[in-house]
Each structure stands twice: as C-alpha cells, then as structure tokens.
Design a protein that fits this description.
Elements lengths: L9 E4 L17 H8 L7 H10 L12 H15 L4 E6 L8 H8 L1 H15 L3 E6 L2 H13 L11 E6 L9 H8 L23 E5 H18 L10 E6 L7 E6 L4 H7 L8 E4 L5 E4 H6 L4 H6 L8 E5 L5 H14 L6 H18 L3 H15 L7 H15 L1 H9 L30 E5 L9 H5 L4 E3 L5 E3 L9 H10 L5 E5 L17
Parallel strand pairs: 1-7, 2-3, 2-5, 3-4, 6-10
Antiparallel strand pairs: 6-7, 8-9, 8-10, 11-14, 12-13
Helix pairs in contact: 2-3, 2-8, 4-5, 4-6, 5-8, 12-13, 12-15, 13-14, 13-15, 14-15
C-alpha cells in the first residue's frame, strides 16, 4: 500500500524552469538567493497589473481556474466604492492528500509567492496580507520568509502580514472556509455563497488566490507578457505545476510547459506503461480511461475537452494490478467523512453514495447500480459548498472510465483483483483525524442473523444507514464521523432486535476498503 506523500516530494522540470528556478542550487531559496536567481521586482499600478494577468491568461491554479484579472478588478472596484482598504490572502491550505505543488512552493520558494502577493497588495493599497497554511513545514518556511522581509502583524505598519494555520482537510481549503478561519471562525465553508471581493477578511474586500497563482504573477511581472508567452501554448502560456503519484514509482512535483503530452509526464515519474486510467485534477477531478489519457495533453482546456480536469494539478495513474473501483471506493469513503456537515447533500448524500458503491462492489447487481446513480444525481448541484459536487464528479467519472470492471462487478463475481490502496490518503493517526467530520475510529455493523428490518436505525442516522430495496438496512462502509458518533450509539441502543453494534477501528488501522457486508435475514 502506498505511503502518504511527503510534505516536499522530489521536484522535476521539463524544459527551462521558471517557478522552480534555483531548486538545483539549494533546498530553500532565502531572500538573498531568491533575488540573485530571479532578480528585483518593480511595483505595478493596479490596472497595469490586471492587464498583465490578462495578457498571459493567468487563471487561478487552485482548482476553479477563475481569471485573476477579473478578480483583481472586482476587489479594486469594491474597495473604491466602499472606501475600505482591501486584504490579500495567499491560500496555501493544501488539504488534499494527492496535492503538494503549493507546499513545494511555500517550502522551497516562499519569496516567489510573496513577490506576487505583495505586488498585488501594493497595487490595491491593501492593509493586510494573510498566508494560510496547513502544515508545520509550510508554516515555518513562510514565517521565516516574512521575517527576512521585515513583515509582521504589529500595528503601525503600512502592511500587516500574518500566517494562519488551517486543518489539513479537503473542505478547509475552499476559499470561503479559509476566509472564515482567518476571521476566527471554524475552518469550514459558511453554507452560504458570498463574494470575497465584496466582503472577506474582517468584512473588507479580499483578493484570495492560491500560492502558485501568485508565484506565476511574479514570474510574469519579471518576464513580461511577450517572454512569458514563449513557453507553453498560445492560449495558455507559461508552465504548470503538477503532482504525480498513484501507481507512479517516483512520485514528484513537476514543472512543465502547458501542452506537453500527458503520457510523457507520467513516464518521467515511472507510471505503468499500461495504466488502466489516470485521475486528473485530484479527488474533485475526473478519471480518464487509458485510451483518452494516452492521447491527452496537459492544459486546462485540453483536459476538460477530454473529459478530465486540470483542477488542483494532481495526476494519479492507476496500474493494472489493482481494482480501480475498489480504489475509487477508498477515496469516496474518505470524501464522505470529509463532510462539513452543513447541508443534506454533503451530510446525507455522500455517505449514501459511499454505501451505494460498496453495495455495487459487493454483488448488489444492476439494482444497486441504478440506486447509486440516483443518489449521485440527487447530490449534484445542491450542496452549500463545492465539496458534494466535486466528490460526485469523481464517483461518476469512475463509473464511466472503468466500464469493463463495473460490468464485471455488476454482472459477475467482481474483477478478481485486490484493492492495493495506491491512491494516497492521510496516514492513520494523522492530525486531520481529530477534526470534526472525520472518522472517529468506529463503524457500524449488523448481525444479519438478528436483523428484522425494522428500519429504526436508518431514521436515527440516515447519513450512514439507508433502507435497501429488500427492506433491510444498507450501511455506509466507512468510519463514523465524530459529529455522528452520538447518533450512531443511540441507534445501537434502540435497535429492537439488538442486531446493530459498534465495532472499534483503532486509529492505526487503515480505513475500510469498501468490502460490502453480506446481506440476509
């Protein structure tokens, strides 16, 4: 089973480095060496900076891909209209287990990220700069970089800068969750959609982008649009940072020009030559089948056209020796446990989807597959944040990419391959497991010799149990989130047939692989 990715994996480069310049010299570029490698950076007026971002087609590199120039102008307009100085936030909250590109930048080239953030802050006349991070390594590197520049959160300074620590969770890296955490609230999406450009940190207009976006801005400001456009595709110039793991024998973060063949990137990291498929964009992305992945190129538009996604820049090839749907179930279980617990599609729908996929893989047949598709369709487009949509996109793409394996599970006895666990997930005992919404270390089980199908348990904890088409409960094969542990224990106590029980799953054990429980009376 693959170990979780290290904080700072190996770094490789295709072509000439831009973001990773100097990485061959030292592990971390301090301010002095950063200036020797990249040179000084001149300030720019706000509209000129927006025009630069527009000229190089700079979109956000955190997943959504929103045009940076549009965001910059929206913050500037809001600040002028309200007469309030804005805030700039660097989102380094990389809580997805398959992503490390922002962590690499903040640990090895923090001043390049700060260059872009400070360039935007000066152009906007910002009063504050916040860098949100998830790991000890990134926090230490950013604090050291701020100190090297003489930046702090002390009053009386023109620009106050600080570091905010967020949990290493999928939902905590969402933009609204980061702003909520910076404001002192829980690091979860607020459940209502608000524009950070209107009211973000402290109610002020806020420019928020991820670390790579600000680093790209700093590179473009030094090179200018003409030289920047010499690398990569005409409509998506420059380079991209990618995290490659999965079945690759040499997981790494790569800097590549846009337009490079996907198969070449995977070969550099030792991916299997006959991969079953490639997950593009991370755990909120989409699977590409083997044939599509072989002919794809790496760019936002090209991957989207192929049915994939650039997303957060994660690429995970899957070797032939593991069950692709079993691998997907491990991730779906984790995504269900990552719920913010603030809306029905996330709190109820994702555990139901995990239970449905487990039922399909356990021999539930065509009826179970149809029920799973109905659950996924009901979740999509109804969440209070992006987590339900991203999770269902991952699930539905797995069903579409691995049709032969799906048919083997639905019509026969399965594909015959084990689930090796090559898609990285947080290590057992990881600090994230102590956060609300993640597994408690217990799960529900049914003694089928006693169960009489009363259905009381499904009413008490619908997030984890639903009634199957045969009139008996179907359980989500995942650990109970901490915030549902009380309801689960209540369901156990109230079961009239004494058929429901809690089973301990100590933190040092791996999460369940999605093997369905036997069904019966």
């Amino acid at each position: 089973m693959n170990a979780p990715l290290p904080d700072v994996p190996d770094v490789r480069v295709v072509g000439l480095p831009q973001l990773t310049s100097g990485f061959d010299l030292v592990h971390r570029l301090d301010l002095s060496l950063h200036l020797k490698v990249h040179g000084p950076l001149e300030p720019m007026a706000g509209e000129r900076l927006a025009e630069l971002a527009e000229a190089v087609s700079l979109n956000g590199r955190g997943g959504a891909g929103f045009p940076f120039a549009t965001k910059l102008r929206a913050v500037a307009r809001s600040a002028i209209r309200r007469g309030v100085r804005p805030v700039v936030v660097v989102n380094g909250s990389e809580g997805e287990p398959a992503c490390r590109k922002d962590t690499v930048l903040l640990c090895r080239a923090p001043h390049l990220v700060l260059d872009g953030a400070l360039l935007a802050a000066e152009a906007l006349g910002a009063r504050g700069l916040v860098v949100a991070v998830t790991r000890d390594s990134t926090e230490a590197s950013v604090r050291e970089a701020l100190a090297e520049r003489g930046l702090s959160d002390r009053r009386g300074r023109g620009l106050r800068a600080r570091v905010v620590r967020t949990p290493e969770r999928m939902v905590s890296g969402e933009a609204s969750a980061v702003i909520r955490a910076v404001n002192g609230g829980p690091p979860l999406p607020p459940g209502r959609r608000t524009r950070a450009s209107d009211a973000g940190v402290g109610g002020a207009p806020t420019l928020l982008s991820n670390a790579e976006t600000f680093a790209q801005l700093a590179v473009a400001a030094r090179l200018g649009p003409h030289r920047y456009g010499h690398t990569g595709l005409t409509d998506e110039p420059g380079t991209l940072l990618l995290t490659v793991s999965g079945s690759a024998v040499r997981p790494a973060v790569l800097e590549v020009p846009s337009g490079v063949p996907l198969r070449y990137v995977l070969e550099l990291c030792g991916a299997p030559p006959l991969a079953q498929g490639v997950l593009s964009g991370g755990y909120h992305g989409a699977w590409l089948d083997a044939a599509t992945a072989h002919g794809a190129i790496v760019s936002r538009q090209a991957l989207a056209t192929a049915g994939g996604a650039l997303g957060a820049g994660a690429l995970l090839p899957l070797g032939p020796g593991t069950c692709p749907l079993g691998e997907s179930l491990r991730v779906v279980n984790w995504l269900a446990a990552e719920t913010a617990g603030q809306c029905g599609p996330c709190r109820l729908g994702l555990p139901a989807a995990a239970a449905g996929l487990a039922e399909v893989l356990g021999g539930g047949g065509a009826t179970a597959l149809e029920a799973l598709r109905q659950v996924a369709q009901a979740v999509r487009g109804r969440g209070a944040c992006k987590h339900p949509d991203g999770s269902v996109r991952f699930l539905q793409s797995a069903l579409q990419a691995f049709t032969d394996d799906l048919a083997a599970h639905v019509l026969g006895g399965g594909c015959g391959r084990p689930t090796l666990g090559v898609l990285p997930l947080p290590a057992p005992g990881h600090p994230a497991h102590r956060v609300r919404g993640v597994p408690s270390g217990e799960k529900l089980a049914v003694d089928w010799t006693l169960c009489e199908g009363h259905g009381l348990c499904a009413g008490l904890v619908p997030q984890l149990i639903r009634m199957g088409p045969d009139g008996f409960p179907a359980l989500a094969d995942t650990a109970i989130p901490l915030h549902l542990r009380g309801n689960a224990r209540r369901a156990v106590r109230r079961c009239p047939a004494l058929a429901l029980r809690l089973e301990g799953a100590p933190a040092e054990q791996e999460p369940p692989m999605g093997r369905a429980l036997p069904r019966g009376r």
